[in-house]
Design brief:
single chain, about 210 residues, Glycosyltransferase, about 50% helix, about 5% strand
Length: about 210
């Protein structure tokens, strides 16, 4: 869905548009429904639920990544943005997966229950930053402002190597190092740089014209 969004914006090709609309519908229906607690990792080929325990639960980071990419896709398609769907996922993550004591977003949970995995992974923080950026651009909200500030403070104080600014892979809920890798097969600067660019583009002070 993400790739098709960027491709369609450039090409305006009708076939790509149809594929993007299909991806958006399938994701919003089967993987990231408006009832965010029912999000899932996998589906059977006929879209039925997967009962394997290894597929159980949900990822707050994936839910938020879908939510803001859904809005992005809809804007590119010229469709009305589904902000109610977006906020359902953001508010679910804040209610069940956000650490209001230390700041930052936990990794995984299940249904409408507290998080089951309280590790804090670099890309999960990045996707929450991206989603909160879009939310605050759309409307002011003191809860979201507090959440993004505490998120950035936590990442800066506990997840970033001050010598080079690279975000470390994973820390515990209270910021103890758990995986200090800066790069591996799944870790590039894709999520974090994208989120930081979104944030700075949205909120950098305007420069007065000379």
């Amino acid at each position: 869905m993400e790739a098709l969004t960027e491709l369609y914006e450039v090409t305006l090709d009708d076939e790509i548009k149809r594929s993007l609309e299909e991806c958006l519908r399938l994701n919003a229906t089967y993987f990231y429904p408006k009832d965010a607690g029912k999000s899932c990792f996998h589906r059977q080929p006929d879209w039925k639920e997967v009962t394997d325990p290894k597929s159980a639960g949900l990822s707050y980071g994936h839910n938020l990544e879908f939510a803001w990419l859904m809005i992005r896709a809809q804007k590119v398609l010229g469709a009305p943005p589904a902000w109610d769907h977006f906020y359902a996922h953001l508010n679910h993550a804040l209610k069940y997966g956000y650490d209001y004591e230390h700041g930052g977003l936990y990794s995984r949970g299940s249904d409408d229950k507290p998080a089951t995995d309280t590790d804090k992974i670099w890309w999960v923080q990045a996707e929450m930053l991206a989603a909160l950026t879009d939310a605050l651009q759309q409307k002011q909200n003191s809860e979201y402002e507090t959440a993004v500030k505490k998120l950035l403070d936590f990442v800066s104080n506990f997840m970033t190597d001050p010598s080079d600014g690279v975000w470390l892979d994973t820390v515990t809920a209270d910021g103890k190092f758990k995986a200090t890798g800066k790069a591996h097969n799944w870790k590039a600067n894709y999520h974090d740089v994208r989120a930081m660019l979104k944030f700075t583009d949205a909120f950098r002070p305007s420069v007065p014209k000379q």
